[in-house]
DNA sequence: TAATCGTGGGC
DNA sequence: TGCCCAAGATT
């Protein structure tokens, strides 16, 4: 849930999920559409599908218990390098290298002297991060929590609070006078008129409905027939939408809407 | 590897 | 006000 999504927005949804599905087996027993529905407006709804698939895999391959090692976690749907490392160390105490957007920004500033990290993690960057992790697993875990929190609360993207920073005295970026980002402008994500936008609109209609939705209802949501069909097809291909008989659509396995 | 994939709050 | 970006993963 936290992937590319602010913590504050995740919290209420996360709590409701854990109330409703306390164990992986509870979620795995549901049709995937229930997960998509309970995802609400968190965004990137394929994550809901993958979280459900991860629950299914945990039941099928791990006797219903979340695996405790980074390597095993990496095999789960929707779990990549960051999530596997974070869960392995924060939940299970394994010594890992946790590199999220906060860690990347902190290290870019403190070590490299740049305002922002590169668009995607570089080999050198990951090596730097790995080299800073303490040897002792418990210390490594504390280190990762600390660097992430520093990035989230103090060394923020927009208005960093250097005056409150415990490592201000050794921060290369601050010592260099906090130079602004130079190089090619960082690419913003286009939005208006994109497939992403329309997919969101279509899925929201299905999520908010109390019963399967007719094709006509979906057609009313966009005049662009080509794009509309492409988006509907892609939602079906992703497994986020299930076509039913009678030219109707619903969240997968969720006939009640 | 670069492109794709949602949403909403803060500045 | 629009723009930026948020505990990334996948193909």
Automatic annotation (TrEMBL):
GO terms for biological process: base-excision repair; mismatch repair. Gene3D superfamilies: Helix-hairpin-Helix base-excision DNA repair enzymes (C-terminal), Hypothetical protein, domain 2. Coiled coil: none annotated. PROSITE patterns: ENDONUCLEASE_III_2 (PS01155). Residues 1-153 form the HhH-GPD domain. Its cofactor is [4Fe-4S] cluster. It catalyses: Hydrolyzes free adenine bases from 7,8-dihydro-8-oxoguanine:adenine mismatched double-stranded DNA, leaving an apurinic site. Its EC number is 3.2.2.31. The keyword Iron applies. It comes from the Bacteria. GO terms for molecular function: 4 iron, 4 sulfur cluster binding; 8-oxo-7,8-dihydroguanine DNA N-glycosylase activity; adenine/guanine mispair binding; metal ion binding; oxidized purine DNA binding; purine-specific mismatch base pair DNA N-glycosylase activity. Keywords: 4Fe-4S, DNA damage, DNA repair, Glycosidase, Hydrolase, Iron, Iron-sulfur, Metal-binding. The keyword DNA damage applies. PANTHER family: ADENINE DNA GLYCOSYLASE. Belongs to the Nth/MutY family. This is Adenine DNA glycosylase.
């Amino acid at each position: 849930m936290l992937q590319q999504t602010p913590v504050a927005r995740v919290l209420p949804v996360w709590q409701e999920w854990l109330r409703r599905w306390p164990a992986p087996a509870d979620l795995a027993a549901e049709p995937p559409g229930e997960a998509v529905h309970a995802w609400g407006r968190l965004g990137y709804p394929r994550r809901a599908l993958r979280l459900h698939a991860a629950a299914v895999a945990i039941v099928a391959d791990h006797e219903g218990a979340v695996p405790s090692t980074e390597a095993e976690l990496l095999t789960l749907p929707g779990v990549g390098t960051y999530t596997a490392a974070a869960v392995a160390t924060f939940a299970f105490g394994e010594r890992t290298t946790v590199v999220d957007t906060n860690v990347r920004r902190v290290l870019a500033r403190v070590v490299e002297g740049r305002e922002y990290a590169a668009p995607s993690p570089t080999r050198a960057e990951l090596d730097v991060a790995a080299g800073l992790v303490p040897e002792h697993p418990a210390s490594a875990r504390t280190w990762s929590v600390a660097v992430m929190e520093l990035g989230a609360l103090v060394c923020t993207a927009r208005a960093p609070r250097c005056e409150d920073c415990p490592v201000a005295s050794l921060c290369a970026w601050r010592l260099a006078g906090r130079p602004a980002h130079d190089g090619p402008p960082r690419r913003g994500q286009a939005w208006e008129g994109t497939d992403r936008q329309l997919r969101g609109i279509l899925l929201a209609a299905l999520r908010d409905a109390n019963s399967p939705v007719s094709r006509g209802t979906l057609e009313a949501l966009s005049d662009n027939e080509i794009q509309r069909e492409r988006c509907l097809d892609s939602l079906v291909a992703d497994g986020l939408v299930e076509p039913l008989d009678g030219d109707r659509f619903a969240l997968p396995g969720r006939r009640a809407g």
